[in-house]
Design goal:
The protein is an alpha/beta fold. It contains ten helices and 13 strands. The longest helix has 18 residues. The radius of gyration is 19 Å and the shape is globular.
């Protein structure tokens, strides 16, 4: 049996990127019951990819209740619907086998990974205050993507002078704006820039100097995306809601590393259940960005542990 239900988690504060703001995380929770056990997974339908709560629910409800993970890869495209079902199936398999998911997947025992903490787009003054509040964190991610971003970056750097910084433009810059900004980003000690140009309009990246690593986010979904990134990007951001689950996420990780890319493992704004499978994927990658639960005012029971060591793998009570 497969069931899908909508859930809403309040955010601790308004979260803003270049495409808009939100005050809550709207997710779908999938539960699959087989052999007397129930596994579950979570996805975040994303409007940028043409997904809605209703469309993703319809995709899931149209599946054969007895579907296997292998069959699922063919039944649904990469995206949120396949992600929640794939992760729920991994959870079911682990519970039926009496093992953890990383054992079933042939992975090493996972440990904590330092994760970025995201500062949403705001005025320079507000972003400086937030940066100072979180200056103890080893890695901050800044949401930018407007023509007037340098004052924001300068404010964050002033608020957190010793913290490593990465930037996510969310497709918000033109090639001209990015070319002008890039040397300043390097001078400010930025370690990485995510998706500076719109996916599908990013060919100029192959012709521009890349003085700091450029990460593909909206331009990278699954293994089929890799050929389109060549020569334009240095890092691939793997998100389970884009790959369509842990199964494809693990395949993309292996394929991207084989082609010489560094990796980031990221997330949409969701609960600890959504992050749990991604903690396995994040083992050993260059950048981990699994701070979704830190942005929430409420979370699942038995949530992920975040401490000075980073985000820890899930307990068996949560997932896997």
């Amino acid at each position: 049996m497969i069931t899908v239900t909508p859930d809403v988690f309040r955010l601790a504060q308004v979260f803003t990127i270049s495409r808009g703001s939100r005050t809550e995380a709207k997710v779908l929770t999938v539960r699959i019951t087989r052999g007397g056990v129930t596994g579950w997974g979570e996805c975040v339908p994303y409007a940028r990819y043409g997904e809605t709560l209703e469309s993703v629910t319809a995709q899931i409800e149209g599946l054969d209740p007895a579907i296997t993970r292998a069959a699922l890869q063919l039944a649904l495209p990469a995206g949120a619907a396949r992600n929640a079902v794939d992760c729920a199936l991994w959870d079911v398999e682990a519970k039926l086998a009496g093992k953890r998911v990383w054992e079933l997947a042939g992975l090493a025992l996972p440990g904590p990974e330092i994760t970025a903490f995201t500062l949403s787009l705001d005025t320079p003054e507000a972003m400086r205050a937030e940066a100072a509040k979180h200056a103890h964190r080893p890695l901050l991610k800044i949401k930018l993507g407007t023509p007037d971003d340098m004052p924001r970056l300068e404010a964050v750097r002033a608020g957190a002078p010793k913290t490593r910084i990465i930037i996510d433009a969310n497709e918000g810059w033109s090639a001209e704006v990015y070319a002008e900004l890039a040397p300043h980003l390097v001078a400010m000690g930025v370690a990485l820039v995510e998706q500076p140009l719109p996916a599908g309009a990013d060919d100029m990246l192959a012709e521009m100097a890349r003085p700091l690593p450029v990460c593909a986010d909206e331009a990278a979904h699954d293994c089929a995306s890799l050929p389109h990134l060549k020569g334009k990007y240095d890092v691939v951001n793997i998100k389970l809601d884009k790959t369509g689950g842990l199964t494809e996420g693990l395949a993309l990780k292996q394929a991207a590393l084989a082609e010489g890319y560094e990796l980031m493992v990221g997330c949409m704004v969701g609960s600890s259940l959504a992050m749990a499978p991604a903690t396995l994927l994040a083992q050993g990658v260059a950048f981990t960005d699994l701070d979704g639960p830190l942005l929430l005012a409420e979370d699942r029971e038995d949530p992920l542990v975040f401490d000075a060591q980073g985000v820890h793998p899930p307990s068996a009570k949560l997932w896997g």
